[in-house]
UniProtKB/TrEMBL annotation:
Pfam families: SH2, STAT_linker. This is STAT6 protein. One of its GO terms (biological process) is cell surface receptor signaling pathway. It is found in: Cytoplasm; Nucleus. PANTHER family: SIGNAL TRANSDUCER AND ACTIVATOR OF TRANSCRIPTION. One of its GO terms (cellular component) is cytoplasm. Keywords: Activator, Cytoplasm, DNA-binding, Nucleus, Phosphoprotein, SH2 domain, Transcription, Transcription regulation. The keyword Transcription applies. One of its GO terms (molecular function) is DNA-binding transcription factor activity. SUPFAM superfamilies: p53-like transcription factors (SSF49417), SH2 domain (SSF55550).
């Protein structure tokens, strides 16, 4: 006999997401000399970060992994805690239930379902943008507002949608004549949307977008991603 990688048998495609979560958790956190099928119910958040990073880089096939600020956002999301510091999260344990059983507050999906949607979208449509570090991605709407509110009119960044699975949205700042700022979010683009017209061309189309945060002219940042008409 020989130990194999984890195997999950499913009877319908809608079970695929849960199966992937089971395989990922088992593969990352089970001990070699365990009793069969016994896996830790809770694991250190730091180990979870390493696992999510390895999974992201392998699926997307990129050398650009997740950054410290990405882990901080993901921790806020999975623990539903916006008051803790980065260091506080490092000493916590995350449970299987938080990873793929409990529905995220105000949403209809789990943390893993959301993260897997991001993986799929990035792999299919955004690999080159992510690898060029043009997508901030893992950042909260509230923090985006804080970043952009002091920036010039037309400054924008790209983040993964909080409200939809597998969506990327563009947040940009508008300044009124009185100097007041307002941050707008464009409705998220799905993989289907981006297969019809690429992200680069959509950004080129939108005249209100001028500079990628912090201060890179959009044609300079995305020019190599434009398709010739």
């Amino acid at each position: 006999q020989v130990l194999s990688l984890p195997i999950v048998v499913i009877v319908h495609g809608n079970q695929d997401n849960n199966a992937k979560a089971t395989v990922l958790w088992d593969n990352a956190f089970s001990e070699i000399d365990r009793v069969p099928f016994i896996v830790a119910e809770r694991v250190p958040w730091e180990k979870m970060c390493d696992t999510l990073n390895l999974k992201f880089m392998a699926e997307v096939q990129t050398t650009k992994g997740l950054l410290k600020e990405h882990y901080f956002f993901l921790a806020q999301k999975i623990f539903n805690d916006h008051s803790a510091s980065f260091e506080d999260f490092q000493s916590r344990n995350v449970s299987w239930a938080q990873f793929n059983k409990e529905i995220l507050p105000g949403r209809g999906f789990t943390f893993w379902q959301w993260f897997d949607g991001v993986l799929d979208l990035t792999k299919r449509c955004l690999k080159s943008y992510w690898s060029d570090r043009l997508i901030t991605g893992f950042i909260s709407k509230q923090y985006v507002c804080k970043l952009l509110s002091t920036e010039p009119d037309g400054t924008f960044l790209l983040r993964f949608s909080d409200s939809e699975i597998g969506g990327v949205t563009i947040a940009y700042v508008i300044r009124g004549t009185d100097g007041s700022s307002q941050v707008e979010n464009i409705q998220p683009f799905s993989a289907k949307d981006l297969s019809i017209r690429s992200l680069g061309d959509r950004i080129r189309d939108l005249g209100q977008l001028r500079n990628l945060y912090p201060n890179i002219p959009k044609d300079q940042a995305f020019g190599s991603h434009y398709n010739s008409e």
